[in-house]
Write a structure and sequence with these properties.
heterodimer, A: about 325 residues, mainly alpha, 14 helices, globular, B: about 280 residues, 11 helices, about 75% helix
């Protein structure tokens, strides 16, 4: 529609071209990142292949033998654990804000959640190292060890000395970081439930919880799911919050009290120190794997959120 | 127990749990902020802003280099990122309004906003640090700008879309070409919103550490030369907190306090402006 209004005008043409180029920068970045990462990691791709790199647990700068599995394992396990902790809490917050809270509390809690999201990840990391880690190693982890001591299989998860620098601590910090994202997207999705539908449920005698459980959550599940996947994408790429408390240990740890390494932590700790080409190239390879993983997950999240939006706007 | 009673009890339990969840969210915020405040206030000292770091292990000194570096890097990132972001958003909301390309770029920007910032650090390292052979403040600024652009672009697009179409038609009717309409009418209408978006994007990048690790790196000495490695508060916090000296830890807390307060202040300011302007 805009085009028909426009008179032919040289300045206008220049201005529109400049804005077009500026908006294309986003596409240029994405293609550029992909191209550069592939190019920089080509040495490592040639040397270790794709499947072999992904399933190898080697990470040995001295023998120049590299594989991504320990890093991917660390990334996946910390992300998974943090989601397990964060999702129930985030949904609880969203339910509280939309259904339970008196009006005067809605604003402050909303702001508190946004502030929690605004705190830089390095602050989370440092707080985790100096404050949370001692609490975990002195109180929480010994307690978990004692409770699970007799139970087979579960006790394996809590083997080892509680040091506070481990998968469990990193996951707790990560979960605190992603609670705000999940909570605010869930809240926005919950809010989209039409009042009429909820009122009909109340009218046939449903309790508040039954309305939430049987009306609000089913109605907004697409949006909530999108929010959860978005948080997953965020957690995968989080660096500083976990870099302090994970310990950068390249092995497949079976106990949650073991140190581990994520892709991001490995990059943060070793990138500048990489002293030969294969080492550096392998780190670029890791970055490429991380980029592809998070891009795919974020794209899925975006598709769900767009679908949710389209469905409700009808 | 009757069925009604059971349902009521079940509901009550669920509601108690979700209230507890909300309290837990608040608890973490108070815990983290309180901790940063207590430790930070204790270590805050005028010398922190006026002196450069002493050699490792020697007590005293300050973080003048890191404060200056952080300001420079963020300032230049803003100078690069904001024009590109605002112009790009203009294209999406005006010239390409409603087209497929506009929708595609919007979605890609939303994805770019959440792409791991450390990956952007490695990208900039490969194109700006490795070829030149040394770390530089410019590389840091560009890395932050790359993170900033999608954020500014999306908020600008949204804010411009809020300006009523009839306003543009009125200007067209006076014979104004589109660029004049955009600059003199649409930008004016959306100025507060765009400013808020810029503020929030500054808050977003000011606390970034990961993309600076391999770009602007760090510098133990005072340096305002953007062509060489420049110290930043965030990278300094990382280095000091992981270091072995108590004095370093104290300075890291103080730096954390300053940066947290700065970011929270901008975030709250942005939210207040939105509330006040778009009730």
């Amino acid at each position: 529609m805009a085009i028909t209004f426009r008179k032919k005008n040289a300045v206008d043409f220049i201005f529109s071209s400049v804005t077009a180029i500026a908006s294309l920068s986003v596409i240029i970045f994405i293609i550029g990142i992909l191209y550069v990462l592939i190019k920089e990691s080509s040495l490592s791709i040639e040397r270790f292949g794709i499947i072999k790199f992904l399933v190898s647990t080697d990470w040995d700068p001295v023998r120049e033998s590299f594989g991504a599995l320990t890093n991917i394992y660390g990334t996946v396990i910390t992300t998974f654990l943090s989601l397990v902790i964060a999702i129930p809490v985030a949904l609880g917050i969203a339910i509280f804000v939309t259904e339970i809270s008196p009006n005067f509390l809605k604003g402050p809690i909303g702001i508190a959640i946004e502030l929690l999201a605004a705190i830089p990840s390095i602050i989370y990391g440092m707080w985790g190292l100096f404050t949370l880690s001692p609490i975990m190693s002195q109180h929480v982890e010994p307690f978990l060890k004692k409770v699970t001591a007799g139970i087979p299989l579960v006790s394996i998860l809590f083997q080892g000395t509680p040091m506070g620098i481990d998968i469990l601590t990193a996951s707790v910090i990560l979960s605190i970081m992603i609670i705000p994202f999940t909570a605010s997207i869930s809240r926005d999705s919950f809010k989209l439930t039409p009042a009429v539908v909820k009122e009909s449920a109340y009218a046939i005698g449903a309790t508040k919880w039954e309305v939430v459980k049987n009306v609000v959550i089913p109605y907004s599940k697409l949006g909530v799911f999108g929010g959860v996947v978005l948080s997953l994408g965020r957690a995968l790429g989080e660096t500083m919050a976990v870099a302090f408390v994970l310990g950068n240990n390249h092995k497949i740890a079976t106990s949650l009290l073991d140190a581990a390494a994520t892709i991001t932590v490995t990059l943060a700790n070793e990138f500048v120190e990489a002293d030969n080409d294969v080492y550096l190239s392998s780190l670029f390879y890791l970055a490429l794997v991380l980029f592809l993983m998070s891009f795919a997950i974020l794209a899925v999240a975006k598709i769900f959120l767009l679908r949710a939006e389209r469905r409700y706007s009808r | 127990m009757t069925r009604e009673k059971q349902r009521k009890i079940e509901g009550g339990i669920a509601l108690v749990f979700s209230t507890l969840a909300a309290l837990m969210g608040l608890f973490w915020l108070v815990f983290i902020l309180g901790d940063v405040l207590v430790h930070g206030m204790g270590a805050l000292h005028l010398n922190l802003f006026l002196q450069d770091p002493t050699p490792p292990g020697v007590e005293g000194g300050g973080l003048r280099n890191a404060f200056t570096g952080q300001l420079l890097i963020t300032l230049f990132a803003t100078l690069i990122g904001v024009p590109v972001g605002v112009l790009g958003g203009t294209f999406l909301a005006e010239y390409a309004r409603g087209t497929k390309i506009s929708r595609v770029i919007s979605v890609l920007s939303d994805i770019m906003v959440s792409v791991p910032s450390i990956v952007i650090g490695t990208f900039i390292y490969a194109i700006l640090v490795h070829p030149l052979g040394h770390f530089s403040g410019w590389a840091g600024s560009v890395a932050l700008a790359v993170i900033m652009i999608p954020v500014v672009l999306r908020t600008t697009e949204n804010m411009l879309s809020l300006v009523p179409w009839t306003l543009r038609e009125a200007a067209f009717a006076l014979g104004a070409p589109y660029y004049k309409v955009i600059i003199q009418v649409v930008y004016r209408g959306a100025a507060t919103g765009i400013m808020t978006g810029i503020l929030l994007s500054i808050a977003r990048v000011a606390g970034e550490t990961a993309p600076l690790l391999f770009t602007s790196f760090n510098n133990a000495y005072f340096s305002a030369d953007m062509k060489g490695p420049v110290a930043s508060l965030t990278v300094t916090i990382f280095q000091y907190a992981m270091g072995p000296y108590d004095d370093w830890h104290k300075q890291a807390w103080a730096a954390s306090l300053i940066i947290t307060l700065f970011i929270l202040f901008i975030t709250i300011l942005g939210r207040l402006i939105i509330k006040w302007r778009y009730k």
